[in-house]
Amino acid sequence: MKKHFWVFFIVMLLVLLPFTVWSKGQQEKGAVKLIIAGRDGGYGKAMQLAVDEYSGLHPDVSFEVLKLPGASLYEKVVIDMKNSVGTYDVIMIDDPVATQFQKAGWLANLDDLFKKSGKSLDPDIISTAVKLGRYPYADNGSLYALPHVGNVELFAYRKDIFNKLGLSKPAKWDDVLADAKMIKQSEPDVYGVVFRGVKGNPIVAGFLPIYWAFGAKVLKDGKPALDSPQALNALNFFLKLKQYAPKGVAMYNSAQVKDALYGGKAGIVTEVWPSWVPKLNDPNESLVVNKVEVTTHPGEVEKSSPMIGVWLLGIPKASKHQDTAFDFLLYITGKEMQVKMADEFGIAPTRDSVYKVSKLISKYPWYPVQAAALKNAVGRPRTTKWSELENIFGTYLQLALIGSMNAQDALKEANAKMTEVLE
User: Fold this and answer.
1) Residue-level pLDDT at 25
2) What is the share, in percent, of the chain residues with pLDDT greater than 70?
3) Which of 44, 33, 34 is nearest to 311 (CA)?
4) Which of 60, 81, 231, 311 qualifies as a FRET site for 285, CA 20 to 30 Å off?
5) Band of the pLDDT at 327, cuts 50, 70, 90?
6) How far apart are CA 151 and CA 349, in angstroms?
7) In this structure, are residues 202 and 254 in contact, taking their beta carbons and an 8 Å threshold?
8) What is the 8-class DSSP label of residue 223?
9) What is the DSSP code (8-state) at residue 242?
10) Which of 11-20, 165-174, 386-395 has the lowest mean pLDDT?
């Protein structure tokens, strides 16, 4: 009887083994279902394209995709990962919060999964974007997320007005100041320069390419560095630039900047995002068709320093399907899928080769510039307190912009407030 039992047991084991998937040391029977916590809008549509095509290639893998607003996405994944629930297998991560997830140990180590799969990270993925997924934040830091959307700030100016006035593309921020002044003097219906001035994230995002180009840092050795001569030079320059901006620029957010850009009211725009650019040459949306040059930011003391704004993809450490999730990450960040997402939904690529695809360059002529910007881009400080620091920085920047504080006092007080947060 005992012999028959063992024969039966071995036969059944051999029958069931092909249907068994091993992931993170746990046994799963049958098909695999991946749950993705992602963004809504165009990002959600691009994700759906990827999961549909992946499922077609892997019929044993199904998906549930949550398409969420940014705040809701953050809240859901933090609660889940903090409690090691393991609901989600793939999550979208806004790069400023990546450090929080990495430091807390909530994400699977992708270096380990690369090693396990026998594959390696493709050098085609632009290194400035990859670095945002590393912890510590260094070229040799451990990898916890792959870049999915390669957003980066761009710079724009009215090339028809520049040609009329004999101006060249600004090489330095001092050139921008001189050009804005000339535009205001020569073109009464056009603002010399337009930027976001609303406190918090908007003004900070718009100011950072200037701040960094002047050689200033937000944090140095983990401590606030707003009280440096470089920071003061940058803010004093910003306040000079304000002379040639709209009177209400302190209340300008993305909508107002885009209205000025598309409506032909802006001579120079210091912060343009890739998703804004396609409408520039759409006659149904724009009064400046073929009149705007989209390019990289000027430098000053330092080289051009646009702010990077990547969305990353990571795998929660508590996921029970890490191997399958990792295979999907490689698929969605692969060249073929990036080309499709860029072509169909305008998703900004993170691979250098995708920016060189001829059909995409025909559709998005600024792609070579966008690739150059992404390669030079600077990440926001890697700290778990960035949201609080950004709010402080943005509050005092706006106080200086509206004239309630002088530049030196604004930076000194912001520095003190940031120090309190980090202590």
Assistant:
1) 34
2) 93
3) 44
4) 311
5) very high
6) 8
7) yes
8) E
9) G
10) 11-20
Give the pLDDT score at 96.
Answer: 96
Q: Which of 162, 210, 153 is nearest to 190 (CA)?
A: 162
Interacting residues of 7 by C-beta distance below 8 A, sequence separation 6+: none
Element (H or E) spanning 265, and its range?
A: none
Amino acid at 74: Y
Distance between CA atoms of 121 and 365, rounded to whole angstroms?
28
Query: If we measure between CA atoms, which residue out of 417, 404, 421, 409 comes closest to residue 197?
Result: 404
Q: For residue 206, give the nearest of 307, 130, 282 by alpha carbon.
A: 307
Helix (H, G, I), strand (E, B) or coil at 199: coil
Q: Which residues pair with 152 in a beta bridge?
A: 308
DSSP state of 352: T
Q: Is 14 left (phi over 0), alpha (psi -120 to 50) or beta?
A: alpha
CA-nearest of 270, 302, 277, 292 to 376 is 302
228-243 average pLDDT score: 98
Whole-angstrom distance, CA of residue 306 vs CA of residue 126:
15
The rounded distance, in Å, linking the Cα atoms of 119 and 125 is 14
Band of residue 14 on the pLDDT scale cut at 50, 70, 90: very low
Q: Are 335 and 86 in contact (CB under 8 A)?
A: no
Alpha carbons 87 and 37: distance in angstroms, whole number: 9
3 state DSSP class of 311:
strand
Contact 202, 391 (CB under 8 A): no
pLDDT at 13: 41
Opening angle at CA 153, ends 174 and 163, nearest 5 = 50
Contact status, residue 294 vs residue 286, Cβ threshold 8 Å? no
Task: Report the alpha-carbon angle 164-247-257, nearest 5.
Answer: 65
- DSSP collapsed to 3 states, 357-420: CHHHHHHCCCHHHHHHHHHHCECCCCCCCHHHHHHHHHHHHHHHHCCCCCHHHHHHHHHHHHHH
For the chain, report the end-to-end CA distance as a whole number of angstroms: 71
Sign of CA dihedral 368, 369, 374, 376: positive
Check residue 140 and give left, alpha or beta (phi > 0: left; psi -120 to 50: alpha): alpha
Among 10-14, 38-42, 108-112, 414-418, which is the least confidently predicted range?
A: 10-14
Ordered DSSP codes for 47-95: HHHHHHHHHHH-TTEEEEEEEE-HHHHHHHHHHHHHTT----SEEEEEG
